[in-house]
Amino acid sequence: MRTVLMVDDQANVRRLVHDYLTQEGFQVTEAENGRQALLLARRERPSVILLDIMMPEMGGYEFMRAYRQEQLNRRESAAPIILLTARQEESDKVLGLELGADDYVTKPFGMRELVARIHALLRRVEEHSGTPAETLRAADVVLIRATRAVTVAGALISLTPSEFELLATLMRAPGRVYSRTQLLERLQGDDGESIERTIDAHIRNLRAKIEPTPATPIYIETVFGVGYRFRAS
To answer: Which of 57, 135, 178, 204 is buried most, with the most CB atoms less than 10 Å from its CB?
Structure first.
C-alpha cells in the first residue's frame, strides 16, 4: 500500500485528507509540523508528501531544505512533495518549487484534484522504475531510469522526480526545443492549475545541479521566446 505523509498544523485539514485518501486506498500518516514530519519520513519512507507551508516549529520551506539534504546525504531517492498553500502569490509557489517541491495545490482545494495530482506524481515515479532498459546519454550526462541515477562527468547527482522527468524529456531528443507548455503537460498532464514559471523554477534547479556554471549553461539551453532544449552534440 502506498503511504502518504500529510503535514499540516490544522487538525481538521489533516482529518479530511486522511479520511478521503484512506477511502482511495492510501495509507496516511500525519504530522502537525515539519519537525515531526522529518521523523516520520525517516521511519515510514512515504510514497508522496503533502506539505503545508505555514506551520509552527518548522514550516514547509524549512522541512524541504532539511529533507532533501538528508536524502542527498544518504544517497536515497526523496519522495515527491506537493505543497498545500493558502497563499495566492505566484512568487510563493515558485519559491516552493525552487526549494524542491514537485507540485502545489492552493487552499481551499478539491479532494478529486488532490488525488489526481498524487496519482500523476506516482505515475511518474513508477514509470521511472518500469523501464529498466532505458539509459540516456548526452554530452557527459548519463541518466538511468532503472535506478533513477544521473551522473555528470561521472559524479552522481540527486534530482527530485520532476527534475528527473524534465531532464529525461530533454535528453531523449537533444537539439529539440520544448515549449514551457509542452514540458508542463509532460509533468502534470491536464490535471489542475499550473503556471509557466513552474518550468522555469525546475530548470533553474536542474542547472544548479548539473551545470558547471549555472549562469552560463552548457547542457540545458534557453531558446528565448520559445522554451528549452538539451544541447545537441
So the answer is: 178
Residue 11 CB neighbours (<10 A): 10
Residue from 167, 160, 125 nearest 146 by CA: 125
- Judge whether residue 177 has pLDDT over 70: yes
The residues facing 151 across adjacent strands are: 142, 156
pLDDT band at 127 (very low <50, low <70, confident <90, very high): low
Which element (helix H / strand E) includes 228? strand 227-230
Whole-angstrom Cα distance, residue 152 to residue 170? 15
108 preceded by a cis bond (ω within 30 of 0): yes
Alpha carbon distance 37, 63 (integer Å): 8
Say if residue 193's pLDDT is above 60: no
Mean pLDDT of 221-232: 92
- Note the Cα 150 to chain centre separation in Å: 16
